[in-house]
Amino acid sequence: MSLISVREERTGDEDAIRAVETAAFGRPVEAGIVDILRESCPDFVSLVALDGERVVGHALFTPAAVDTGPVGMSLAPLAVQPDAQRRGIGTALVERGLAALRERECPFVIVYGHPGYYPRFGFERASAHGLASHIPDVPDDVFMVLVLDAGAMAGVRGVVRHRVEFDEAME
After folding, report:
1. 41: nearest Cα among 18, 10, 64, 66
2. pTM for the full model?
3. What domain range is 109 assigned to?
4. 47-94 pLDDT, tens per residue?
5. DSSP assignment of 57-111, as one string?
6. What CATH number corresponds to the domain at position 92?
7. I need a labelling partner for 8 at 20 to 30 A (CA). Which of 1, 14, 50, 57 fits?
């Protein structure tokens, strides 16, 4: 097994990221969302995981806003090539992304994800923080938040909205 490294996305990584997203999700929707966000969203964090020179994972963080409060970030999508899963690649991507967001003094990160996976990074049910998803019928245990700046989030309650491109791509 090779040593996995994580770095920011670079020009020229687009095709490899598209391949990872499509393989991981078994469809091209998430890859399309990444392409659209790359073009339309200037403030994002996009990371790739490399096994040698091969891109085997990708994580994208884009702005998300509480309707009554600050702008944070949304983690979506997180993808790892099926043949490279269960090697800590997703964990490495999330940890590196969260470290970058802490440096940027990002107040929070949301994720729609598996309740058995994301709590290891400190994510909790968003409802416990008075936050709700703008997407109807999302299970309470799937919509999670990681508060990075408790002071900035003190008293903040409301609906969290991620980039509209997600909704448009899913229609």
Report:
1. 64
2. 0.93
3. 4-170
4. 999 999 999 999 999 999 999 889 999 999 999 999 999 999 999 999
5. EEEEEEEEEETTS-EEEEEEEEEE-GGG-SSSHHHHHHHHHHHHHHHTT--EEEE
6. 3.40.630.30
7. 1
